[in-house]
Amino acid sequence: MTPPLDDAALPNRLPRPKEELEALKRAWKPTSGLGLLKEVNNNIIGVMYIATALLFFVISGTLALVMRTQLAVPENDVLGHSLYNQFFTVHGTGMMFLFAVPIVEAIGVFLLPSMLAARDLPFPRLSAFAFWAYLFGGLAFFCSLIFEVAPDGGWFMYPPLTSMKFSPGINADFWLLGIGFIEISAIAGAIEIIVGILRTRPPGMTLDKIPVYCWSMLVMAGMIVFAFPAVIVATALLEIERAFDWPFFIAERGGAPLLWQHLFWFFGHPEVYIIFLPAAGLVSMMVPALAQRPLVGHDWVVVALVGTGFFSFGLWVHHMFATGIPPLSLSFFSAASMAVSVPAGIQVFAWIATLGKGRLQWTVATWFLLGFLFIFVAGGLTGVMVAVIPFDWQAHDSYFVVAHLHYVLIGGMVFPVFAGLYHWWPTLKGTMLSERLGRWAFWMMFIGFNVAFFPMHVSGLMGMPRRVYTYPGDLGWNVLNMVSTVGAFVMAFGVLLVLIDMARDAFGRGRPAPENPWKAGTLEWIPNDNYATRSIPHVRSLYPLWDNPSLSREVQEGAHYLPGAPTRRRETIVTSPIEARPQYLMPMPGPHWSHFLAGLFTAAHFICLAVQLYWVSLVPGVLAIASVFWWVWSLDKGADHPPQDVGGGWRVPVYLQGSENHSWWGTAVLLLVDGTAFACLCFTYVFLWTVSPDVWPVGTDALPGLGWLFGEAALWVVAAGAMLLASRAVAGNRPWATRGLLLAGLLLMLAAAVAEPYNRIASGLVASESAYGAIVYMLASWQVFHVVILVLMTGFTLARSFAGRLHARRRVTFDNVMLVWLYTCGQGIVSLLLVHLFPRLAV
Amino acid sequence: MDRRSGRSEGRRRNWRGAALAGGMGLLAACERGPQSALHPAGRNAEAILDLTLILVAGGGVIFLFVMALAGYAVIARPERFPGGRAWIIGGGLVFPIVTLTALQVYEFAVARQLSDTGGVEPLRIEVTGYMWWWEVRYPDVRVEGGEVLRTANRLVIPAGRPVEVVVTAADVIHSFWVPSLGGKMDMIPGHENRLILVGERPGTYRGQCAEYCGAQHALMAFDVVVEPPDRFEEWLAAERRPAAEPEGPQQTAGRDAFLRAGCGSCHTVRGTPANGAAGPDLTHVGGRGALAAGTLPNTPEALAGWIAGAQHIKPENRMPSFPILGGDDLHAIAVWLESLK
C-alpha cells in the first residue's frame, strides 16, 4: 500500500474526464414512481424515515392534546377511563419507540454519510428494510387505537397488570409484539451506524478528526447494542408467559414482578440517553457553525459523550427507588444518577463557552438552541432533585416527574431536532425554510412548552399522581391543570407552524439557499447529489471547510478520491477504523424489491401473531425469510474486478474477506446484541433464584444426571470443530468436504439443542409449574431458536456452494455464518453450565 | 414527636410551603390541599419539604447563573468573554463534583432520619392493595372474637407515635402514598415493603395510589386520620366491637336485605353471618370518610347509588351493580350500613 499524501498534493489530477461524472450519475440514478419502494439511497430513505417519525410525533402529540383536554377540569368526561388509559399508553410508547429513537436514527441515516463524505451507509438495504418494517409496524400499532384494542398497560407495561390474568385482551400483545418487532429496526439501524462511522470515513479522518455528531451517534448506537436486548428479552418473556403460562412474573409460582422492572429499566434508562446524545451531537455541530468558531473543549465533549454512555447503564434503579430495594444499593444508584449530570454539565459549559468566544448568527436554529439550553438545564436540575432518594419518594410517579421527563426529552431532544431541521434543511434540496414562520414557531413552542409543563412540578408536589384519567375538584389542582392544558395547545400550534413551513417548501415556496448558507466547517455542506459528493475529500482537520476554503471546489471538480464509478456500479471506499486509510472499494447494492418485501412480510407476520392468527402468520413469516434470501443472494460478489485506482496513489481491491470486511463487522456487532440478550436471560435465571430459591430443586434427584451436561457440551464442541474444519475445506477449495462437514455439524447441533429439553421433560420438569421450570425451558428454547436460524443460514450457504458462489476467494457469506455458528456453540456450553451446575452448587 | 409541636412550628411550615409555592411563581399552589407534599403534617413529609426547599433554592441559583452566563455569552463580544476551557473544568467538572458530594452526604442523613423510629416501638399496620381499594389490618390488635382487626380504605393512627406500614398487593402493583405525611412505597405482589410514618398534626389526610394499576387507578384513594393518642385508643376500642345491633325496623330490614342479596359472600360485617373476604370489611363502614376508596362521599344516598350502580360509577371494579334491588331495600341497606359507626 502507498503512504499517505503529503500536504500539498491533491489525490487526483485535474481536469477529470467527462465520462467519469456521467458514470457516477448513471450508477446512482434515483428511481421514480413506484420504484420508490425499491429505493435504498440514504438521501431518499433518510428523508422518508424522518418524515414518518414526524408523522408519528404528530399522532402521539395529538393524543396528548386530547388527554390534556380531559384533564383541563376535574371530573371531566371527554375520555372514559378505558380510552384514556389507551391514549396515555400509546402516547408514551409512540413518543419513545416510534418517534424519539427512530428520528435520531433517521437523522443519522440522512446526515452521517454526507458528514463522512461516504456515498451511502455500508448496508443500504438494511436501512431501507429497517425503515419499511418501522413504517408498517408503526402504522399497525396506531391503528389498534381505531379498534379500541390499543395497549393500556402504560408504556412501561409492568406485570402483573399486563399478565394474562389482568389483561386478557390482545391489547397487551399489540404492545409486546409490535414494540418487540420495531426494536429489530432500531438494532438494524445501530449496526448500520456503527459500521458506517468506523469503516466508511473519508481518507485522513483519523479518530481525532471525527465530527462530534459522529461520536455521539457511535456512542448512541453502541448503547442500543447493549440496552435494547434487555427489553427484547423482557417482552419475549412476558409474551411467552401470556401465551404458554410460563410464570416468569407471577409471584405465586416463584416469578418476580420486579424482574420486569430491572430488565425494562436496564434498557429504559440508557434509552433516555440514546435519545439525548444524538441531539447533543447535533447541538455540538450547530453551535460552532452558528458561532463561527471551533467547539471549545472538543476533546472534553467527546469524553463526556462516551462517559454518559457508560454511566447510563448504572442508573436504572433510580426508576425503582420506591420498590423497597435495600438502602445500600439505592445509595449507589443515587450517586451514579447524580454523577451522570457531570458529563451533561461539561457539554453545557462547552456550548456556552463556544457561544461566548464566537460571533453568533441569529437564525431560527439559534433560537431553538437557546430554548434548548433553557429547558434542558432546568430539566437537568430537576433530574438531580429526583436522584435524591427522599425527594424522589414524594416526587416519584407524580406530575413532578411528568414535568421533569418532558423538560429533558422535549428540551433535550425535540428542540435540538427542530433546530436541526431548520439548520440542515438547505442540504436537502438547496432551499431554506422561512425565518419568519420559524421564529413564530419557536416562540409558540417555547412559551407553550413552559406554560404546559412548569405547573406540573407544582401539581405533582401537591399530590397529583401520574396516569389518572380524572381527579376530584377539591385538592387544589384545578387552576394548574387548566394552565397546563392551555400551554399544551399553544405548543401544538407552534409545531403546526413548522409543519406548514415544511409543506410550503415542499410545494416549491422555499427560498433557494446559497452554498453553505451558515458558513459551516464540516463536510455535509459540500454540494452533493444522489451519489453524495463528486469526490471523497481528503480530511486533515475537524473543520475541513474552514481550514481549506478551496476544498469544496476541489471536491466538486473531482480532485479528491473516487471521482467516478470505476466499476460502473454503486461503491464507496472502506477505510481502516482508526487511521482511516483506504482498504477496499465496497460495491453497494442498488434499488431492489427484496428488502421492501422482507419489511412488509415481517410486519405482517408480527401483526398476525398479535391478533392471534398463529397459523396464518406462518405464511408471511416464510415469505419474509424467502425475501431475505433473495436480498442477500446477489451480495458477496467476490473480486469480480481488478483492484481500482481511487486516487492519491491508492490502488485498492474491490473485495476483502476476513475480519476486514464490513459485513464481518456487522455480524460481529449483531453477535454483541445476541450475547447481551443471552446475558439478560442468565441474569433472569439468577435473579429468579434470589427471589424464590424455594422453587429451585433441592438435591440432585430432580436434576438430569451430569452425563447429559457432558454429553451435550461435547456435541457443541464437536459441532464447533466441524465448522472450523469446514472453514479449512473452504480455504482449500474442497467443496464436498465443506458441504459434508457443514451438514454433519448441523446435525450435531440439532442433537445437542434437542437433548436439553428432552432430558428436562424426561426428568419431569414442567415449564408452567414454577419460575424455575420456565427459565430452564426458556434457556433451552433460546438455544433451539439459534439452531433453527443456523439451519436456514447453513442451507443458504450450501445453496451458494452448489451455485459455485462459495470458494476460497469468495467466502464472506461463509465467514459470517461461521461467526454465528461458533457463537452459538459457545453460548450453548455456557447455558448448559449454568442450568446444570448452578442448582448443584448454589442450592 | 414532642420536639416538633406547637403553633409556631405550624406557622413555620406554612411559611415554607408558601415560600416554595411562591418561589415557583404560582399562586394557585397556596390553596391548601389534604394531599400535598407542600403542606406537611408529619415528621417525614416535613424533612422532605426541608430537603425540597434546599434543592429548589440551590437549583434555582444554579439555573439563574447558567442562564445569565449563557445570555452574556450570546451578547458579549468574543474578546470580552472571559475564559474558555476553564468554564468546562470549573463549571462542568469541579463544581458539580463538590456540590453533589455534599448533597449525597445530606441525602443519606435525611434518608436515615426517615426510617428512624427513635427507639419507640412502632405501631404496625398492614395495608394490602387491591384493584381498586385498600385492605387495612392492625396485626397486633384483636377484635372481640380473637381475629386480627381488619378495616378498609382508612388508616387511623396516633399522633406522634411512629407507625410502621407494611405494604403488599393482592393482584397487581400499587403504591402507597400520603403526601402530607411522607413519601411513597410500592406494593408488590409476593413481596412486603415497609414504610415509617409519623403523624404530628391531628387531622384527615388523603392518600392515593401512585403506581398505575389499571382501569380505575384514578379512583383509588384512602384517608389517614391522625388522632391524639387518647382519641386513638377510643377509636381502637370502638373498632374492636362487632357491628351495632340494628335500631328500628328500617335498619333491621336493611340488614336482612343485605344478607338476602348475598352481600355477605364478599363482605364481612362482624356480628352478622356476613363473613366474605373478597371485598372491604363493612363492620364500621358508617364511620369512614368516603366510599369506594375515595370515590364518593359517605352518605346514605351515595351508598344506595353505589350499590345500585357500582359498575357505572367505577367501571370494571369487582363490585357488581345491583339494579335488581328495589328502592326500599336499597334505601334500607344504605341506612343500616350508615348506622355502623
Automatic annotation (TrEMBL), chain A:
Q: Which InterPro entries match?
A: Cyt_c_oxase-like_su1_dom, Cyt_c_oxase-like_su1_sf, Cyt_C_Oxase_1, Cyt_c_Oxase_su1_BS, Cyt_c_oxidase_su1_bac, Cyt_c_oxidase_su3-like_sf, Cyt_c_oxidase_su3_a-hlx
Q: Tell me the GO molecular function terms.
A: cytochrome-c oxidase activity; heme binding; metal ion binding
- Asked if the keyword DNA repair belongs to this entry, the reply reads no
By its UniProt entry, which SUPFAM superfamilies does this protein fall under? Cytochrome c oxidase subunit I-like, Cytochrome c oxidase subunit III-like
- Which Pfam families does the UniProt entry name for this protein? COX1
Membrane topology value: Multi-pass membrane protein
Q: In which pathway does it act?
A: Energy metabolism; oxidative phosphorylation
A GO-annotated cellular component: plasma membrane
Q: Where are the transmembrane segments?
A: 44-67, 87-114, 126-147, 174-198, 210-238, 272-291, 300-318, 330-352, 364-389, 401-425, 437-458, 478-500, 590-607, 613-633, 664-688, 708-726, 738-755, 775-799, 820-838
Record key words, sorted? Cell membrane, Copper, Electron transport, Heme, Iron, Membrane, Metal-binding, Respiratory chain, Translocase, Transmembrane, Transmembrane helix, Transport
- Where does the record place the Cytochrome oxidase subunit I profile domain? 22-552
Q: Where is it mostly found?
A: membrane
Name the domain of life this protein comes from.
Bacteria
Q: Where in the cell is it found?
A: Cell membrane
> Which EC numbers characterise this protein's activity in its record?
7.1.1.9
Instruction: State any GO BP term from the record.
Output: electron transport coupled proton transport
Q: Which reaction does it catalyse?
A: 4 Fe(II)-[cytochrome c] + O2 + 8 H(+)(in) = 4 Fe(III)-[cytochrome c] + 2 H2O + 4 H(+)(out)
Q: PANTHER family annotated for this entry? A: CYTOCHROME BO(3) UBIQUINOL OXIDASE SUBUNIT 1, CYTOCHROME C OXIDASE SUBUNIT 1
State the similarity comment. Belongs to the heme-copper respiratory oxidase family.
Q: What is this protein called?
A: cytochrome-c oxidase
Q: Organism classification, top ranks?
A: Bacteria, Pseudomonadati, Pseudomonadota, Alphaproteobacteria, Rhodospirillales
Automatic annotation (TrEMBL), chain B:
This protein's GO cellular component annotations are: membrane
Looking at the record, the residues that make up the Cytochrome c domain are 249-341
Where does this protein reside within or beyond the cell? Membrane
Q: Which InterPro entries match?
A: CcO_II, CcO_II-like_C, Copper_CuA, Cupredoxin, CuRO_CcO_Caa3_II, Cyt_c-like_dom, Cyt_c-like_dom_sf, Cyt_c_oxidase_su2
Q: Which UniProt keywords apply?
A: Copper, Electron transport, Heme, Iron, Membrane, Metal-binding, Respiratory chain, Transmembrane, Transmembrane helix, Transport
Q: Which GO terms describe its molecular function?
A: copper ion binding; cytochrome-c oxidase activity; heme binding; oxidoreductase activity
Q: Which family is this protein grouped under?
A: Belongs to the cytochrome c oxidase subunit 2 family.
Please describe what this protein does: Subunits I and II form the functional core of the enzyme complex. Electrons originating in cytochrome c are transferred via heme a and Cu(A) to the binuclear center formed by heme a3 and Cu(B).
Q: What is the name attached to this protein's record?
A: Cytochrome aa3 subunit 2
Q: Which species is listed as the source?
A: Azospirillum brasilense
Q: What is the lineage of its organism?
A: Bacteria, Pseudomonadati, Pseudomonadota, Alphaproteobacteria, Rhodospirillales
